């Protein structure tokens, strides 16, 4: 057990929780909030478990903080929003049971012990009381504090990965984030779960969510090869390559993405690096199985398929480079640039992709061309000349258009 001194920065909200907790069996700060406090790096998320009605407590807390409540009665959860973008997440303590591997659990109300027993790793299975005379008392049934101090990620029980194989990817993510490592028994159980095919039992959406979270983590120089080391890459797809080359390409893609202000989600670039050797005919089906939104899936697919083709087709004029790159902008030409570092593609992102005409179809009507399929053809030709440096300014564009109309 023992007691824990909570950060002063959290005192106002925790004092409010204490003030409204009198009528409840137990109210606890839990999970990632507590883990990060013990690591000395609080993120100021406040996750509260209530032995009793979490929604009722949330309503009282909102009054205390002059905030508002969002409830999810089906799940017994609520969020209190207050101040400037501050929040408290509250959930009714619950127990879980799994009727088959890799499926969502059956949930019932329970005690704080039940709630901690359903969690993934010892470092997330701790709580600290926020109620009355027990305020600050640490509940740590699995030795999570000792594992935190040792930099160790340890699963709670032998069936934990089988119940929820997404925990394998979460363990890798924690290894990356904190520099921790799974203990030998946890690694053995992860490999056993993968070898028996339970990762493949996950729904595509659940696997996608964990992959996206892993790829958004930041430095993934450990996480990506770790997928291969544990055998998980083959469960993601038989032709995924989670190797050092994937790390290098992912880092390069993120660097270029930032340099050119493209704002492509990092996870999408990570998918490109991992899937770079997938056969073209398999990519769309794989992404569809992961329930990736169609616009994102198209960008990933075209990057993998068309990026290398763009990289091999850079010998023409600037207009030729734009014609090759623009149809699948920005991911495919960015992947081509990551593969080649070609000056033509740097010029594309630096300058060419931003070049637009100063004239329009209305201007062509003014020089004698009415509605006609030739409008698009003439504008395309004028832009081609502008991209190649033959035209400068609106008047030059108009003169070129007049010549083409004539």
Overview of this structure, please?
The model has no long low-confidence stretch (mean pLDDT 90). It is built from 21 helices and eleven strands. With 406 residues, it is an alpha+beta fold. It has helices at 11-19, 31-38, 54-65, 112-117, 144-150, 160-163, 166-178, 184-195, 204-215, 223-230, 233-236, 244-259, 266-274, 280-289, 294-311, 318-325, 331-340, 343-350, 361-366, 374-387, 394-405; strands at residues 26-30, 47-51, 68-72, 77-82, 86-92, 94-97, 106-109, 127-129, 138-139, 152-153, 181-182. The chain has a seven-stranded mixed sheet. A hairpin with a 3-residue loop joins strand 4 and strand 5 (86-92). Helix 13 packs across helix 15 and helix 20 packs across helix 21. Helices cover 51% and strands 11% of the residues. 38% of the residues are buried.
């Amino acid at each position: 057990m023992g007691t824990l001194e909570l950060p002063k920065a959290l005192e106002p909200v925790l004092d409010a929780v204490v003030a409204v907790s009198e009528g409840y069996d137990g109210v606890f700060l839990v999970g990632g909030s507590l883990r990060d406090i013990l690591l000395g790096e609080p993120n100021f998320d406040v996750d509260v478990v209530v032995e009793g009605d979490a929604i009722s407590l949330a309503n009282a807390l909102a009054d205390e903080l002059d905030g508002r409540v969002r409830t999810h009665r089906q799940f017994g959860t609520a969020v209190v929003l207050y101040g400037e973008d501050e929040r408290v997440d509250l959930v009714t303590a619950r127990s879980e049971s799994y009727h088959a591997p890799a499926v969502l659990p059956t949930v019932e109300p329970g005690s704080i012990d039940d709630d901690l027993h359903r969690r993934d790793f010892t470092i997330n299975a701790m709580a600290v009381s926020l109620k009355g005379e027990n305020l600050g008392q640490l509940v740590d049934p699995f030795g999570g504090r000792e594992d935190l101090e040792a930099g160790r990620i340890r699963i709670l029980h032998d069936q934990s990965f089988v119940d929820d194989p997404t925990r394998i990817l979460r363990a890798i993510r924690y290894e990356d984030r904190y520099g921790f490592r799974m203990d030998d028994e946890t690694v053995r159980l992860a490999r056993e779960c993968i070898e028996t095919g339970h990762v493949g039992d996950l729904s595509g959406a659940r696997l996608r969510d964990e992959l996206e979270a892993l790829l958004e983590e930041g430095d993934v120089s450990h996480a990506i090869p770790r997928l291969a080391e544990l055998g998980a890459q083959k469960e993601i797809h038989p032709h995924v390559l989670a190797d050092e080359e994937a790390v290098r390409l992912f880092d390069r893609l993120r660097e270029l993405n930032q340099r050119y202000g493209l704002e492509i989600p990092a996870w999408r670039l990570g998918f490109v690096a991992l899937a770079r050797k997938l056969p073209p005919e398999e990519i769309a089906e794989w992404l569809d199985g992961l329930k990736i939104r169609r616009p994102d899936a198209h960008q990933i697919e075209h990057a993998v398929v068309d990026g290398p083709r763009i990289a091999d087709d850079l010998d023409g004029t600037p207009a030729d480079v734009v014609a090759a790159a623009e149809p699948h902008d920005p991911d495919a030409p960015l992947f081509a640039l990551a593969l080649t570092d070609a000056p033509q593609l740097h010029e594309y992102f630096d300058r060419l992709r931003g070049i637009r005409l100063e004239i329009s179809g209305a201007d062509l009507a003014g020089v004698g061309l009415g509605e006609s399929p030739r409008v698009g053809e003439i504008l395309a030709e004028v832009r081609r000349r502008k991209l190649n440096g033959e035209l400068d300014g609106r008047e030059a564009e108009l003169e070129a258009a007049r010549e083409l109309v004539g």
